[in-house]
Amino acid sequence: MLGLFQSEWFKLRKSKVLPILLSGPLVGFFVGFALRYEANELQGQEWYLTILYMNLTYALLFLPLITGVLAGVICRYEHQSGGWKQLLALPVSRGKVFVIKYMLVLLLVLLIQLLYLGSILAVGAINGISEPFPTEVVWKSILGGWVATFPLVALQLWMSILFKSFAAPFAVNVILTLPSILVINSERFGPYYPWAQPFSMMYIGGNEGDVFFIPWEQLLTVVGGSFVLFFLGGFLYFQRKAV
Amino acid sequence: MIANLLTSEFLKIRRKGFWLLTFLGPFGVVALQMVNYGVRKDYLLQQSNDDWGYYLGNVHSFTPLALVLGIAILTSFMASIENETNAWKQLIALPVSKMNVYLSKFTVLACLMLFSSVLLMVFTFAFGLVLDLGSAVPYMDIVQYSFFPFLASLPILALQLWVSTVSQNQGIPITVGILGFILTYSAFFLPDWVIWKWPSLMNDANEPVQNVLLGVGVGCLLYVVGMIDFTRRDVK
């Protein structure tokens, strides 16, 4: 298991994944600076408003989309010149390969979340926000957004294994992510749409009482349910995939 | 020669999902409004006296987003046709110039985008009629909202085609596409010179034609830059 993880890590290091990871804080910086003046209007809420605005674009659109790219990068070597055959000819089980790849994408998403957190801090420092940093709220938001991508990553990994080209799984991702813009405005449908969950879990104005910003029932049923569905779908598909 | 190249390019994109995506883009944009109006039609009709104008504005709020992402997907798809089977070498080994190869790829993509603009016009008009928004149909506005975003996004098409043909790793052009998409989504906050603002048809002068002219002009320029760079690179 550890050897498999190492081999995946080596492949990843040669995959030019760093520019993709850095795009996360780049979006953070862009939104953070574009909205500087509006955030300054309200004293006493500077951190709150800065993070609220930054998360709006980042969590609603960027995070769901970039998970698809990361899942695609993870499968890139295998799709080139019969890599699946070479990998699966090794004494490894297909289940383990799938789980390792999944965990590695999750790790990359966590990295991008942490880099984004760094961009929040940097934006605050450069804009000269003197208020105390709302540590707990921000960590809730960063980790919550990460948890909300679990089902999305599972589906994207499935699609990336299914399609040889990079663009096809991304197209699926786009088709499912764009409706979020409308869905989050709806109180009726918003809680049930898995692609809107990263936004809900990073929305710092949400329910303060729970561990994350959405109720436990919603986390377990929508995020958990879609995770089980997509993960099992991808797992079973990979077991039967002809290489 | 260019005609033969175009024919071969159109043959290559058959049964790969290109036409499906070309259809899904405009259909998705209008379908989102079908859901939007389906859920809260009464509320939306109350928002303005100009029901057609308000409806077109709603459709147009998604057109640039779908366009920018659609361009990223199609250009990357186009490059991966050759990348996947290492066919660049074989293609260039034919008695064709590299310039014409690049031109034919660009032309095919522009045709696909143009076709999706036509579909967008048809779908917008048809669903507008279904909604029964009044007898004064603003035909000119429908045409403008369907074709202007495409013309204004030509620089993005040229840029994305360039990035995806020279990238070995298609994750790079897709990431560039996502970043461009984020810029388009935040178009309201951007200065006028940013090319990703143009498909939204917004500018300080409030003159959509300006974006179209800029789009076509800068699009040609970026196309030539990309083509020259493509011809000078070694084919791996």
Automatic annotation (TrEMBL), chain A:
> Where does the source fall among the domains of life?
Bacteria
- Print the keywords alphabetically: Membrane, Transmembrane, Transmembrane helix
Transmembrane parts of this sequence: 17-37, 57-77, 98-126, 138-159, 166-184, 219-238
| PANTHER family, alphabetized | INTEGRAL MEMBRANE PROTEIN-RELATED, MEMBRANE PROTEIN
Specify the protein name: ABC transporter permease
* Naturally occurring in which organism (per UniProt): Mesobacillus maritimus
Species classification = Bacteria, Bacillati, Bacillota, Bacilli, Bacillales
TrEMBL record, chain B:
Q: Is Lyase there in the keyword field?
A: no
Domain of life, per UniProt, equals: Bacteria
Spell out the CDD domains in the cross-references. Answer: ABC-2_lan_permease-like
The alphabetized UniProt keywords are: Membrane, Transmembrane, Transmembrane helix
Check the record and name the Pfam families matching this protein. ABC2_membrane_4
List residues traversing the bilayer.
18-39, 59-81, 102-130, 142-162, 174-196, 208-230
Q: Which PANTHER family match?
A: INTEGRAL MEMBRANE PROTEIN-RELATED (PTHR37305), MEMBRANE PROTEIN (PTHR37305:SF1)
Q: What is this protein called?
A: ABC transporter permease
